Amino acid sequence: MQNTKNYDSEYWQESILSGNQISRNDAMGILNDLDLFQLMNLGSRLTSVQVGDVVTYAVSYNINYSNYCAASCPICAFYVPAKLKGKTDRGYELSVEQVRQETLKAKNLNATEIHIVGGFNPYLGMDYYESVFRAVKSTFPEVTLKALTIPEIDFIAKTTGNSLKETVMRFRDAGMDAHTGGGAEIFDPDVRKQITTPEKISGEKWLEDAKIIHSLGIPGNSTMTYGHVETWESIVDHMIRLRDNQLGVPGFLSFIPLKFSPDNTPLQKMGKVVYPGSGENDLKVISMARIILGSAIKNISVYWVAIGKLLAQIALDAGGSDLVGTAFSEKIFGATDRNETATTQEINYLIKEIGRIPAQRNTFYDILSYF
After folding, report:
1. Model confidence pLDDT, tens digit, residues 84-135
2. Contact by Cβ (8 Å): 78, 322
3. pTM for the whole thing?
4. Residue 144 — φ and ψ, nearest 5°?
5. Fold of the domain built from segment(s) 9-370
6. Given 253, 315, 362, 368, which residue has the most CB atoms within 10 angstroms?
7. Taking residues 156-160, what's their average pLDDT?
């Protein structure tokens, strides 16, 4: 084990910018040896070299097509158990026409991407998703369709009797341009079994599926859900596995750490997580993401919906370089009572206020306009 004691932030900056990949031992040493200010300073300096002063975001509209789910994960406040379909008025499935109407709303808001995710709904066939994707593209041809988490794609493949490859190819032909990168949660199996159920694929399978999906020309984001029962060892492990996957088969456009919001979740009702994690922890996650991932996945996203706008500004000075998007009509975090909204004007102001340059981007991180 390398002894990192007394290695300061300048040492790590030089090492990282020289092309050295941070190991698990290095990462834990950095966490132990550097205080919060030093971590943020290192993250900020790496960002200035790897990305520059520009902070990006997309004009994104969310369509959550159904909340019926066969998984019932303890971290989720959005789902209604699939077995209750027809027995409760809390569940829903959008029709293709309803999706078309939502797409028109996105068009009126000048969205550049439509983000589609939902629950593991065993009652929907392959034709439903293909019809939904075609409806979006026929209604709004120029929009980028970013659809489904990797576990959703895997679930649909299994329940419809198709291979993952065939499923992705059919979705691609129907108009899917990118995947959302969700459902990664935490890869550590000991942590994962506390926050998910067996219906959701393992962390290893998530990474394997990502390689297949990327090899078929469908890129997407990568995510991590933190602030529940994980440890710093499991956070570091998660980031390093994402980095190694990216170096093997590129396809991740960004890394989005998703702070767990406990309100209304089974995990809160069980008493395992009562309150949200600290702001200090949020900032450390962003800084460590830049330190571990920045050389392989340079776009480190700050999800303001989960951590709030003011802390998001600070996180942009700790290693973040992207604010994800406007998240119009987002319902999954909304189910935890975090009903955050933002206009493009407000996002531009938040970025300019900290001396950075706002830029609207598309899903693939091509800059559309500066402000």
Report:
1. 888 888 899 999 999 999 999 999 999 999 999 999 999 999 999 999 999 9
2. no
3. 0.92
4. -90, 130
5. TIM Barrel (3.20.20)
6. 315
7. 97
Q: Parallel, antiparallel, or unpaired: how do β-strands 144-147 and 220-226 relate?
A: unpaired
Residue 233 burial (CB count, 10 A): 14
Residues 6+ apart with CB under 8 A from 176: 133, 145, 147, 148, 168, 218
Give whole-number Cα distances, 8 to 3, 35, 45, in Å.
12, 10, 13
CA 309 from centroid of its chain's CA atoms = 17
Q: For 248, how many CA atoms within 13 A lie in the half-sphere containing its CB? A: 11
Query: 68 by DSSP, 3-state: which?
Result: strand
Q: Tokens standing for 136?
A: 């979006």
* Neighbouring C-beta atoms of residue 353, cutoff 10 Å: 9
Q: What is the pLDDT of residue 288?
A: 98
Q: Parse the chain into domains and list their residue ranges.
A: 9-370
The answer to whether the beta carbons of residues 100 and 139 sit under 8 Å apart is yes
